[in-house]
C-alpha cells in the first residue's frame, strides 16, 4: 500500500512528506499519517527538528473537500495541528506550490514557515461557504493583526511568498530548488542556533491593539452588507476573528469550531462545493477523453461589431494572431477601433501595459475586407448579423478559402449549426462557439456540437475555451442551446406574472432577493428592449397558438423605450445614471394591457415569484437534459452560473432543485399547470426521477 504520509531521515532532521496526489488534500488517511509520523519523530531521540512538506507539485491544498457533509472521521485536523503546535522539537513547514486552507493552517500550527519563491498561501474557505476551521481564524490575526487577517480570510485571495513574508505570515523565502532542500536548510539553522519554539498561539502583540474595541469588526460587517449580499460564512468569519482578539486562544479555537460547524451545515456550503467540482468536471466531456486537438496559432473573426471585437480581444489577449474580416473598409476601421478601445480600457484598469497593447495591435492584429486573408488561419469565428442566410453566405466564402483542417465556428446564439454545416463541404469541421456579451469579459463559452462535428474539433473548442480563460460547456443543437433556451422559458413566466398582477419592480426585487445580481427587467434594459422584441418577431411564425403571449414589452418597444441606451425602458434613466428609477408610465402600460384582457390583478409574494421562476427554469432544464442538449445536470448548472447570474452559493438550478426536493418542484409545476397546461408540461425526466426517488445529482458523471 502506498503511504500517503512518509517519514524520511536526513541525519538529525526528520522530513514528513505528504504524498496524496493530486493536491495533497488532508483526507482521513493523511491526517492519521501526519499524526503518527509526527509522534514517531517527536519520540525519536535522534531527531532534533522536523520538516513538513508536500510531494510533487504542491504543499497541502487544504482539507479534502469531498469529506464535507459526511460523518467526521478521526483524527480531526485541529487535533493533528494541536500535536504539531505542542511538539517539543522545532517543526518547520516547507511550502511550495499552494498552501491553502487546512494546508496553510497546518503551516500555521508549525513553529516556523519557509516558502519557495513562487509559492502561494491562502485561506480560500470563504469561496466554499465555510471558514478556516483548524485554527486559521485564530492564528492568522496573531501574526498579522485582525484587519489584515480579515482582508485575507474574507477575500480568500492567495498571497505570494514575498508578500506573505512582508506581512509576517511566513518566516523566510528560500531560493532553494525543492521544498525539502529549503526545509532542511531552515531546520539546520533552527538546531544550530537553538531557535525557540515559536508557537503562534502564544503571540499576542498583533491583536492587543484591537482588544476591547469593535471598530475593525464594525467596519468589516458594514462592508459585508454590500459585498456579501445573501452570503452566510463571511459573517461567521468576522465573528471568529473577533473571538481571536477577545478570547483566550483555547476558547477562541472552540468558538471557531462551532462557527465552522454552522457553515458546514449550511446549504451554501453544499451549493458552493458543488460549483467547485462542477466547474472542474464540465471540461471532462464523456466520450471525448483522448481526442486529439488541432493546433491553434492564428484565428479569424468575421464581423467587427461589439461581439466580434470582444471575441477578437479575448483571442488576442490569449496570444493568438487574429485577422478581422469586415465587408468594407469603413466597417473594418470601426471594428478595429472597437478592439483598440477595449484594449485601451484594459490598459487604464492596469490589466495590460501600454507597450503590450501597442505590440498586440501592430504585431498580432490585422484586418481585411478580403476572405482570402484567412487562407492560412487555424480557426475562424463568425460573428455577423444573426440571420441564417447571411451566415450561410459567410460560411460559403470561408469554405472556399480556408485551408484543410481549419475550424469553422459560428457565434450564433440560437441558429441551427447543422444547417450551417450542411452548406459547407466540410461539416465535420463546423462547430458553434457561443460567446456571451461582452465576449472579452464573460467566462461562459457554449461549445455547440453538431451532428457531424468531429471529436477533435470539439476537443479543440474546449482547448480554446481554456486558453481564453473561459469555461467551456458542451451543448447540443436546438433553438437557444442550453442557456438561451432555458432563459426563454423562465423569462415568459415573468411576463405572465406581471400581466397577472405583479409589478416589474416586485419581480426584479424578488429575483435579486433570491441572489441574482440583477432582476430580469433590469437585464432587459441593459441588453436592450429591442433585442427581446426581435427574438419575439423571429418566433412569430412558429409560435404555438396555445402559447400565452404578453404584449407589455411590445408596447415599451413601440414607445421607443429601448432600455438604458435610450434613457428609458422598464426603468427610467436620468443622465449618467445606470441604476434606473421605477416609472409610473410603465406601470400604466401594464394596467392597460391587463384591462384589455380583462385580467383581475392578483398579488404575488416574493416567494411565489421565485418559485414560479425556478420551477420554469428547472422544468425546461430537465427537458434540455432529456433531449441530450446538455449531457449532464452539472453542464446546466455551470451554464447558468457563468452566463446568467444564477447565485453561485445555490450551486446552479439543478443542485438547487435537488436541495429543495424534486417532488416539491414537480408539485409546483403541476399546480401551475392547472392555470396554464400548455406552459407547464412537466418534463418526463423530472417525473421519472421523482417516481424513482432519485435526483439530478445521480445523473452527473
Ligand atoms: C479547508 O481546508 C477547510 C479547513 O479550513 C478546515 C478543516 C477542518 N479536496 O483545481 P485543479 C482536486 S477547505 C479535494 O483542477 P489546479 C480537484 O477537484 C479547502 N480535491 O488544479 C481536481 O480533481 P480532478 C481549502 C481537491 O492546479 C484536482 O484536485 N482549500 C481539492 O488548477 C486538481 O485541481 C481550497 O479551497 C481539495 N481541497 O489548482 C483549495 N483541491 O483532477 C481548492 C483540488 O479529479 N483547490 N482538488 O478534477 C484549488 O484552489 C485548486 O485545486 C488548486 C490547484 C489551486 C489547489
What does this structure look like?
Belongs to the enoyl-CoA hydratase/isomerase family. In the N-terminal section; belongs to the enoyl-CoA hydratase/isomerase family. With 701 residues, the chain is an alpha/beta fold. 49% of the residues lie in helices and 12% in strands. An 8-stranded mixed sheet has the order 12-11-10-13-14-15-16-17, sandwiched between helices. A 6-stranded mixed sheet has the order 1-2-3-4-6-9, with helices on both faces. The site of (S)-3-Hydroxyhexanoyl-CoA has 24 residues, from strand 5, helix 3 and helix 12.
Set out the fold topology:
Blueprint: E1 5-10, E2 13-18, H1 28-42, E3 49-54, H2 77-86, E4 91-95, E5 98-100, H3 102-109, E6 112-116, E7 120-122, H4 136-144, H5 146-155, E8 158-160, H6 161-167, E9 172-174, H7 179-192, H8 205-208, H9 215-227, H10 233-246, H11 249-265, H12 267-281, E10 298-302, H13 306-317, E11 321-325, H14 329-348, H15 354-364, E12 365-368, E13 379-382, H16 388-401, E14 407-410, H17 417-422, E15 430-435, E16 444-448, H18 455-467, E17 471-475, H19 483-500, H20 504-514, H21 520-527, H22 529-540, H23 552-558, E18 571-572, E19 581-582, H24 584-596, H25 606-626, H26 633-643, H27 653-660, H28 662-673, H29 684-692
Helix pairs in contact: 1-2, 2-3, 4-5, 4-10, 5-10, 9-10, 10-11, 12-26, 13-14, 19-25, 20-25, 21-22, 22-23, 25-28
Bound molecules: (S)-3-Hydroxyhexanoyl-CoA.
Amino acid at each position: 500500500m502506498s503511504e500517503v504520509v512518509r517519514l524520511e531521515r536526513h541525519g538529525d532532521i526528520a522530513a514528513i512528506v505528504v504524498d496524496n496526489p493530486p493536491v495533497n488534500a488532508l483526507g482521513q488517511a493523511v491526517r492519521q499519517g501526519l499524526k503518527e509520523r509526527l509522534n514517531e519523530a517527536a519520540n525519536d531521540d535522534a531527531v532534533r527538528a522536523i520538516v513538513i512538506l508536500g510531494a510533487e507539485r504542491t504543499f497541502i491544498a487544504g482539507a479534502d473537500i469531498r469529506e464535507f457533509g459526511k460523518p467526521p472521521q478521526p483524527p480531526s485536523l485541529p487535533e493533528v495541528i494541536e500535536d504539531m503546535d505542542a511538539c517539543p522539537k522545532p517543526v518547520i513547514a516547507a511550502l511550495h506550490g499552494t498552501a491553502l486552507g487546512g494546508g496553510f493552517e497546518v503551516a500555521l500550527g508549525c513553529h516556523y514557515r519557509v516558502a519557495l519563491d513562487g509559492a502561494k498561501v491562502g485561506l480560500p474557505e470563504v469561496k466554499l461557504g465555510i471558514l478556516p476551521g483548524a485554527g486559521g481564524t485564530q492564528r492568522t490575526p496573531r501574526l498579522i493583526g485582525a484587519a489584515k487577517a480579515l482582508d485575507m480570510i474574507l477575500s480568500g485571495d492567495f498571497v505570494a511568498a514575498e508578500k506573505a513574508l512582508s506581512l509576517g505570515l511566513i518566516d523566510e523565502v528560500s531560493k532553494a530548488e525543492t521544498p525539502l532542500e529549503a526545509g532542511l536548510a531552515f531546520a539546520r539553522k533552527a538546531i544550530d542556533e537553538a531557535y525557540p519554539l515559536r508557537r503562534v498561539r502564544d503571540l499576542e502583540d498583533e491583536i492587543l491593539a484591537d482588544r476591547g474595541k469593535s471598530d475593525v469588526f464594525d467596519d468589516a460587517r458594514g462592508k459585508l452588507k454590500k459585498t456579501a449580499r445573501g452570503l452566510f460564512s463571511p459573517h461567521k468569519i468576522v465573528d471568529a476573528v473577533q473571538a481571536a482578539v477577545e478570547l483566550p486562544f483555547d476558547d477562541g479555537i472552540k468558538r471557531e469550531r462551532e462557527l465552522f460547524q454552522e457553515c458546514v451545515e449550511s446549504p451554501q456550503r453544499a451549493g458552493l462545493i458543488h460549483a467547485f467540482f462542477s466547474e472542474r468536471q464540465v471540461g471532462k466531456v464523456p466520450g471525448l477523453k483522448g481526442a486529439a486537438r488541432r493546433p491553434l496559432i492564428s484565428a479569424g473573426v468575421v464581423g467587427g461589431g461589439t461581439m466580434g471585437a470582444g471575441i477578437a480581444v479575448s483571442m488576442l489577449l490569449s496570444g493568438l494572431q487574429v485577422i478581422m474580416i469586415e465587408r468594407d473598409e469603413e466597417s473594418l476601421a470601426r471594428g478595429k477601433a472597437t478592439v483598440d478601445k477595449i484594449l485601451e480600457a484594459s490598459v487604464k484598469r492596469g490589466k495590460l501595459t501600454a507597450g503590450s497593447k501597442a505590440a498586440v495591435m501592430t504585431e498580432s492584429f490585422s484586418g481585411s475586407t478580403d476572405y482570402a486573408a484567412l487562407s492560412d488561419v487555424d480557426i475562424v469565428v463568425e460573428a455577423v448579423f444573426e440571420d441564417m442566410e447571411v451566415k450561410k453566405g459567410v460560411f460559403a466564402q470561408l469554405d472556399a478559402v480556408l485551408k484543410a483542417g481549419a475550424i469553422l465556428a459560428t457565434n450564433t446564439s440560437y441558429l441551427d449549426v447543422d444547417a450551417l454545416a450542411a452548406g459547407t463541404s466540410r461539416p465535420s469541421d463546423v462547430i458553434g462557439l457561443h460567446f456571451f456579451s461582452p465576449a472579452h469579459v464573460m467566462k461562459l463559452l457554449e461549445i455547440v456540437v453538431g451532428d457531424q462535428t468531429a471529436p477533435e474539433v470539439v476537443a479543440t473548442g474546449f482547448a480554446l475555451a481554456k486558453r481564453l480563460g473561459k469555461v467551456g460547456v458542451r451543448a447540443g443543437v436546438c433553438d437557444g442551446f442550453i442557456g438561451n433556451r432555458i432563459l426563454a422559458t423562465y423569462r415568459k413566466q415573468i411576463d405572465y406574472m406581471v400581466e397577472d398582477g405583479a409589478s416589474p419592480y416586485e419581480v426584479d426585487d424578488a429575483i435579486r432577493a433570491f441572489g441574482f445580481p440583477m432582476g430580469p427587467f433590469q437585464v432587459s434594459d441593459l441588453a436592450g428592449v429591442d433585442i427581446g422584441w426581435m427574438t419575439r418577431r423571429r418566433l412569430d411564425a412558429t409560435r404555438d397558438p396555445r402559447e400565452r403571449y404578453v404584449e407589455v414589452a411590445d408596447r415599451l418597444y413601440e414607445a421607443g423605450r429601448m432600455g438604458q441606451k435610450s434613457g428609458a425602458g422598464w426603468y427610467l434613466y436620468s443622465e449618467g445614471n445606470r441604476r434606473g428609477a421605477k416609472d409610473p408610465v410603465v406601470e400604466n402600460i401594464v394596467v392597460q394591457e391587463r384591462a384589455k384582457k380583462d385580467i383581475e390583478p392578483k398579488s404575488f409574494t416574493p416567494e411565489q415569484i421565485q418559485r414560479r421562476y425556478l420551477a420554469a427554469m428547472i422544468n425546461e432544464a430537465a427537458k434540455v437534459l432529456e433531449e441530450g442538449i446538455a449531457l449532464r445536470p452539472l453542464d446546466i448548472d455551470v451554464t447558468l452560473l457563468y452566463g446568467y447570474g444564477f447565485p453561485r452559493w445555490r450551486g446552479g438550478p439543478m443542485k438547487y432543485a435537488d436541495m429543495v426536493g424534486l417532488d416539491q418542484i414537480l408539485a409546483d409545476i403541476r399546480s401551475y399547470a392547472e392555470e396554464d397546461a400548455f406552459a407547464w408540461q412537466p418534463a418526463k425526466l423530472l417525473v421519472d426521477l421523482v417516481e424513482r426517488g432519485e435526483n439530478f445529482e445521480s445523473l452527473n458523471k
